[in-house]
Amino acid sequence: MSAASSRQLAQKLGAIAQTWTKDPFRPNVQLQTFLKSLAGYSRLTPETVEATRALRDNDMMKKYPLPEKLRHPVSSPQYYDRLLEGYEKSSQGISRPLWKVFFGIW
């Protein structure tokens, strides 16, 4: 692989790393930092850059969407919706009131 194509791959991976979302729960460990350091790796391949782009863009989730039966199981239809809501609220610093936790109210 030539130095020019290696440099182009590093630039593409760096651009992908810039657009990667930050993890609010682990501010000291970010995937974005790892991807930036990986861009400086001398044996970077086009497949690596393409796989990273596919992860960022959720290509597999678009290709194979989650069936409704898995997302809303009969035993607890709201489970994953509540889990997602709790994750989003906790990333904003919003917690459930203690009385709701105690009584199991959502």
How does this model look, in words?
With 106 residues, this protein is mostly helical. The protein has 2 domains: 1-65, no CATH class; 66-106, no CATH class. The protein has 7 helices and no strands. The protein has helices at 3-19, 31-39, 46-56, 59-63, 68-71, 79-91, 98-103. Helix 1 (3-19) runs antiparallel to helix 2. The longest helix is centred in the first third of the chain and has 17 residues, at 3-19. It is elongated, with a radius of gyration of 20 Å. 7% of the residues are buried.
List keywords for this structure.
single chain, 106 residues, mainly alpha, 2 domains
Which SSEs are present, and which pair or pack?
Layout: H1 3-19, H2 31-39, H3 46-56, H4 59-63, H5 68-71, H6 79-91, H7 98-103
Helix pairs in contact: 1-2, 1-3
- What overall geometry do the principal axes of the alpha carbons give? elongated
> Total strand count, please?
0
How large, in whole angstroms, is the Cα Rg? 20 Å
Described by strand count, sense and barrel closure, the largest sheet is: none
* SSE pattern, N- to C-terminal: HHHHHHH
SS-derived structural category: mainly alpha
Number of domains: 2
- Report mean pLDDT, rounded to a whole number: 91
How many H/I helices?
7
Helix fraction by DSSP (H/I, runs of at least 4): 55-70%
